[in-house]
Design a protein that fits this description.
This is IclR family transcriptional regulator. The chain contains seven helices and eight strands; from the N terminus they run αααββααβββαβββα. The chain is an alpha+beta fold and 213 residues long.
Length: 213
Amino acid sequence: MTAETSQTLDRGLRVLKLLADTDHGLTVTELSNRLGVNRTVVYRLLATLEQHALVRRDLGGRARVGLGVLRLGRQVHPLVREAALPALRSLAEDIGATAHLTLVDGTEALAVAVVEPTWTDYHVAYRAGFRHPLDRGAAGRAILAARQGALIEPGYTLTHGELEAGASGAAAPLVGITGLEGSVGVVMLADAVPERVGPRVVDAAREVADALR
């Protein structure tokens, strides 16, 4: 800790991080041990976080992340979109296909940023806000492959006709970003994705991941 930082705020944020890393919640004693502070401090931290709905405690007294974090999370999409746009724009212009950034939203894949090429005669219309099941389409399949540790070289996923008849897609997952599951991809009107597209999508996903770190 430095003179410019708040010890109480630091501890509160550490509580949230600890709770976010567990599915079954933590007791006051467990939090006390992990933070290295006494139980009274933990009680005060939890009470404050509960007032803002960032933490909730079940009947057994175990603390968990509260629904208030969802309201904060909704503000993440615009920030992520802004950071990803340069890489998506470059990808769309280079490939001549619609580029998109897709994030996990519950059990669905949600397109949060889309860039269409400016020089093509025609391309697939794809809009931010479009949702589809994670197990359909290249964007969702790339995310699931990364989640399951099944994504191997060359590092991208290809599909054809799963979301739109006659359209093919290529996508690569975002790697190395804690707490964020997503992919970068392109969709094009073609029977098959050209060979150079997959590696280019992987490069774009790496650029977006770097921008978000």
